[in-house]
Amino acid sequence: MTTTTPERGTLLRESNFRWLMSGGLISALGDQFTLIALPWLVLTATGDALTLGLVIALMSVPRALFILVGGALVDRYSPKSVLMLSKFANAILLGILAALVFAGPVPLPAMYVLAFGLGLASAFGIPSGTSMLPHVVEPGQLQMANGILMGIRQLTMLSGPLLAALVFALWGDGSGEQPGATHGIAIAFAFDCASFIISAWTLAKVRLHAAPVKAAAEGMWRAIGDGLLLVWRDMSLRVCIMYWALCAFVVGGTMQVAMPVLAASRLGGAASLGLIMGVHGAGALLGMAASGALAKRRLGSFGSTILLVDAIAGALLMGMAMIHTTWQAGIFMLLLGLLNGFIQVAVFSWIQQRVPRAMLGRAMSIFMFIFMGLAPLAAAATGALLDALSLTGLFVGAGAFLLAAATVAWLFTPMRHIAHATPIG
After folding, report:
1. What is the per-residue pLDDT for 130?
2. Smallest Cα–Cα separation from 197: which of 87, 82, 120, 34?
3. Tell me, what's the pLDDT at 3?
4. Which of 342, 413, 409, 371 is nearest to 248 (CA)?
5. Cα–Cα distance between 207 and 80 in angstroms, integer?
6. Residue among 381, 410, 412, 374 at smallest CA distance from 397
7. What is the phi/psi pair of residue 418, to 5°?
8. Taking the model in full, what pTM does it have?
9. How would DSSP label each residue in 214-258?
10. Residue 145: other Cβ atoms inside 10 A
11. Can you tell me the distance from the alpha carbon of 85 to that of 398, in angstroms, rounded to the nearest whole number?
């Protein structure tokens, strides 16, 4: 800690990073309010799970479809410009939603349109937000800065739902028939609207270290194609992204579907699910902090570190098959969260350092598309598998797959030789 504490202090004293960090904290906290309030609004208004699924799909599909376009626009204009516009768009949409909830029952068509708009805005906000940091901090500070920002977001994921629940308890969650029963939901949307406005103001204070390197003027499809070619021609990027896509499809689906089933069938129900997911979040926070603090202490190559962590995670997933109590699940989820948080920071920092800034928006959008585009397919496939496999078989299969994938990648691909990134401009 003696070497990292002064470096962290230097980073936190930089006004650019403080403005970016404070805006990120406010915006991430507001996001948690909407993540709780929107599905609850749909359920209280309709009581229909199918309608809730449609609203979630209307947010997810445009985000997955347009995120590559968002990445191309980031490279053409600058991450700051695109991020600012996405914040204003989100603020307008959430302001309209808050006003509609305050006024009375929200028509279903309005919910659909606003959900689509929020998903579309996030398709531009995500690649610009993930591409912003290399323009603000020095290359050698990237991993520590990523660790701090991701840790802050993880903290909001723990505290945001609790604060939202307090707002619902004080001002109503829509479950009653009396006038003003939905004011708590409206306040949640209004808070998120304000968070985007405030974070846009803090973003305006951020000065880029150097003028963003703009991509050459070209058609949108050509720009997206160039981003895909960049990933394909870079052997290390290509191998890593193909490996991550495969693992995300198998393991991501298991975590989305199997964890609620585990809580319902073997543990204590919804309360146990909330507890173990909270423990997982706490583990991820610790892993992010460790990854940022140990940015200059490396165990082998970047690729070998990824494969080692995945092999351990695979063994832990196989162990999940034997769990029958909440405290056992908590231990496994804490360890999985720790590994996940550690590797998230390392991966983001590696991509940000490896890819030229003129192409970073497209590279990050491709990386994020892997998880957002595959998530619905992975969840559907896992749900279908549970009709044929037991929960025990699913955990053992997913863990064995991850362990086998890491082993095969180590033995038969160049992944274990992929080095830590050398910062480039």
Report:
1. 87
2. 87
3. 45
4. 371
5. 9
6. 381
7. -65, 125
8. 0.78
9. PPPS--HHHHHHHHHHHHHHSHHHHHHHHHHHHHIIIIIHHHHHH
10. 27
11. 40
Class of residue 222 by CB neighbours under 10 A (exposed 0-12, middle 13-18, buried 19+): exposed
pLDDT tens, position by position, 138-172: 877 888 888 888 888 888 877 887 788 888 888 87
Specify the amino acid at residue 47: G
Question: What is 227-420's CATH superfamily?
Answer: MFS general substrate transporter like domains (1.20.1250.20)
The C-alpha angle with vertex 247 and arms to 246 and 249, in degrees rounded to 5, equals 70
Joined together, the tokens standing for residue 312 give 């351990």
What is the architecture, at CATH level 2, of domain 1-214? Up-down Bundle (1.20)
Q: How far apart are CA 181 and CA 183, in angstroms?
A: 6
Q: What is the pLDDT of residue 192?
A: 95
Residue with token string 């590279």:
363
Q: What stretch of H or E contains 268?
A: none
Closest CA to 149 of 36, 1, 335, 17: 17
* pLDDT higher at 196 or 423: 196
Q: What does the DSSP 8-state code read for residue 170?
A: H
- Other CB atoms within a 10 A radius of the CB of residue 98 amount to 21
The 3 state secondary structure assigned to 312-338 is HHHHHHHHHCCCCCHHHHHHHHHHHHH
For residue 215, name the pLDDT band (cuts at 50, 70, 90): very low
What is the location of CATH 1.20.1250.20 in the chain? 1-214, 227-420
Amino acid at 73: L
Comparing 83-97, 220-234, 289-303, the range with the smallest average pLDDT is 289-303
